[in-house]
Write a structure and sequence with these properties.
13 strands
């Protein structure tokens, strides 16, 4: 008796099992040569001690999606179908892997929108430093957090001065070290509450109409910080203060109203995005060249950059932060200590995001607050990988591509001999996973 299997009810595309992507091919072919030449060619510019950290992240990325590292066995729950497949593990290499980086950006955006940003107007600021000071951020990671704190203090000081009363504000400040075409271009994206709460708990909105004075204050305070840290001399500081075109800039053109969830998530994803897009990458393995497409640059008069593969790896890995260094900082009401007390402040709890309200009823406690020491807070925003794949690729890996029924994970296999045995069998019966080289199983 032949059983007819119903077509999938969802209009979503079928989930395609992952295979080696273009960027992984570049790293697998040329990373060892890059590591061998690092001390001689790149250490002076990128840092003498960075190769260990780079190698750690790169090795995980190269193994991302490698079926030999372990698999999850996923089977259709329909007894008349029983279609199944194996899925490899991800590396979570947020600073290299495009897939894992996109998932991280989605987690970050989801957390901000559903758990953190109050239902009040926010303003996106972009703070830029002059080229003469950008080089210091390559070698002194203290500056990531210190300049973030300086930015928040400037804005809240302005709010308090403008309103004539003490203001408690809130901000998320994200350091972004890259610009277009993988150039070192450190700048800061900040989502800042447009105003704050006074001591009586009233929200005071303070619209920004002109950033000229804010830019001037940013210039003075930043130069003062560099001078205090001993990074520049007094003579150089005076020179920077005399420049007609200072190189400091503040953009505040994007306003986010309290209920604009789509805009909030889009901006959050942009602030946490990876430095590279796979769609813009072309790899010539025979010539060991990488072509990267960008928006047209009127200054350089080009929209593509051609790299030697090893130089390309050097350009991309310069954005990997040292271990334990965070790119995102939370201030004011969004700092973990304050957020743990939201349920004690009715004026704040009343405008808290829906996700926070759902998880903080009568049983509200500090335990539900994510740890601020993590760049992407994990507890409140952790989602199943299936949900993330749906968001990234508009496909559902837990919906059967044959009958549309739910699929479930029935086993997680990590024992290397067992994994190789399974993969050899799949090769033998003609069902080898995409991108798997059978010669590597010997």
């Amino acid at each position: 008796m032949q059983v007819e299997v119903a077509a999938p009810s969802s209009a979503r595309a079928v989930y395609a099992q992952r295979s080696t992507n273009t960027l992984q091919r570049v790293f697998r072919d040329h990373f060892n040569r890059f590591a061998g030449e690092y001390d001689q060619r790149y250490a002076k510019e990128l840092g003498n001690s960075r190769i260990e950290r780079i190698s750690q992240v790169a090795s995980r990325f190269i193994a991302c999606g490698d079926y030999r590292q372990g698999v999850a066995r996923i089977r259709c729950s329909n007894p008349d179908c029983h279609f199944e497949y194996f899925r490899p593990f991800s590396c979570r290499g947020f600073h290299l892997c495009p897939s894992c980086s996109q998932k991280r950006a989605l987690l970050f955006a989801e957390y901000l929108d559903e758990q953190l940003l109050l239902a009040l107007p926010h303003r996106q600021f972009v703070f830029t430093l002059p080229k003469a000071l950008r080089v210091f951020l390559r070698y002194d990671q203290r500056l990531f957090g210190q300049i973030s704190r300086l930015i928040f203090s400037l804005v809240t000081e302005f709010y308090s001065t403008a309103s004539g009363r003490p203001i408690t504000g809130a901000a998320v400040v994200a350091f972004q070290p890259f610009g277009d075409a993988l150039r070192w271009n450190p700048h800061y994206h900040a989502l800042i509450l447009e105003g704050g709460f006074d001591p009586e708990g009233r929200f005071i909105r303070v619209p920004i109409h002109d950033t000229a004075r804010l830019t001037q204050l940013l210039r003075q305070r930043t130069i003062g910080l560099f001078l205090e840290l001993g990074l520049i001399t007094e003579q150089f500081a005076e020179t920077l203060l005399r420049w007609k075109h200072s190189g400091f800039s503040v953009d505040y053109s994007v306003l986010l109203e309290g209920g604009d969830h789509r805009a909030r998530q889009a901006l959050a994803q942009y602030a946490a995005r990876a430095p590279l897009s796979l769609q813009k990458l072309t790899y010539d393995d025979a010539g060991a060249k990488v072509l990267y497409h960008t928006a047209y640059n009127p200054y350089l008069k080009q929209n593509t950059t051609l790299w030697d593969a090893v130089d390309f790896i050097a350009a991309l890995t310069q954005f990997i932060p040292p271990w334990g260094v965070r790119y995102v900082h939370y201030f004011g009401l969004y700092a973990s200590r304050c957020k743990a007390r939201w349920d004690q402040w009715p004026h704040v709890a009343a405008v808290a995001p829906n996700g926070w309200k759902e998880s903080h009823g009568e049983q509200a406690s500090a335990e539900a607050v994510p740890n601020q020491t993590q760049t992407v807070p994990q507890r409140a925003c952790r989602s199943a990988w299936a949900k993330l794949i749906i968001k990234v690729y508009e496909v559902d890996p837990l919906v059967c591509c044959r009958c549309g029924s739910a699929m479930t994970v029935i086993a997680v296999i990590t024992d290397p001999p067992e994994v190789r045995k399974i993969l050899r069998h799949l090769v033998k019966i003609g069902r080898a996973p995409p991108g798997l080289d059978p010669s590597l199983l010997n």
